[in-house]
Amino acid sequence: MNLNWYYKHFRNLSTTELYQILQLRCEVFIVEQNCPFQDLDDKDFKCHHLMGFDTETQQIVAYTRIVPPGLSYEEASIGRVVTSPRVRKYGVGKELMRNSIELAEELYGSSIKIGAQLYLKGFYESFGFVQTSEIYLEDGIEHIEMLKD
């Protein structure tokens, strides 16, 4: 699998990129996880968007938004972490998180706080995140807050 990684601030996204991002987020967060929720939360405008672009299919297949400090948490954050079901067995999720952490540190040079789905706790721990909250429900799914210093 050959992916090109790039990021842009919201104001620099093309309409095609924005469409593919929203399509991927909808495919996974709303349809696959069977979780109707308001994905468009006005934070996208202020964020950088990291995209993994499959050169064969010409599609964005991995994505995160890098949230500046003070918008979701006091710290910078990585949110809307998503990979297409078609690429999950190839280690794309790990590559996505490594690139996201590197980008967040490059942009903001601070700690990173995330709201993680509980079943992914071990995945995020493998990148140095530690649980900092009790379990809470968000859109009917168990979550925890995690911090990487």
From TrEMBL:
Gene3D superfamilies: 3.40.630.30. Residues 8-149 form the N-acetyltransferase domain. PROSITE patterns: GNAT. This is GNAT family N-acetyltransferase. It comes from Flectobacillus rivi.
